[in-house]
């Protein structure tokens, strides 16, 4: 891959446009009768978000995710660094790098990447819930609760809903 990536550095194609499919799945999640149905639909969202722009980007994404899953967080971040350098407009590269940073409790780095993810894809439920968890981890409770509400507006079945605090006088 090394030489191929170097040669392709300037040629990452645009990320796939899954906007219509994403909106359809989000609507189905919001209408889901139960958490099990919503989880299946959420897997469909992740399949779209992790559909990289080309084979090089997909290989980097898959390798970084495998490293993260094996708890090699620094190595995963290095691979995600390559991915975002190669495909700076691909939201999932930033989101996955944020997740690796979050798991290391490097909340500042995670928050920066989550903000970039949301600039590229404002309706990325995973990034919104990750932003909520990151802000809560930083002790920024009010902002974390706001991000959590935004995520739950898109997917009311998120497991993170258990962290939602009811404001006085307002039912959940």
From TrEMBL:
Superkingdom assignment: Bacteria
Gene3D superfamilies reported for this sequence: Tetratricopeptide repeat domain (1.25.40.10)
UniProt cross-references to InterPro entries, sorted A to Z: TPR-like_helical_dom_sf (IPR011990), TPR_rpt (IPR019734)
UniProt protein name: Uncharacterized protein
Species annotation: Histidinibacterium lentulum
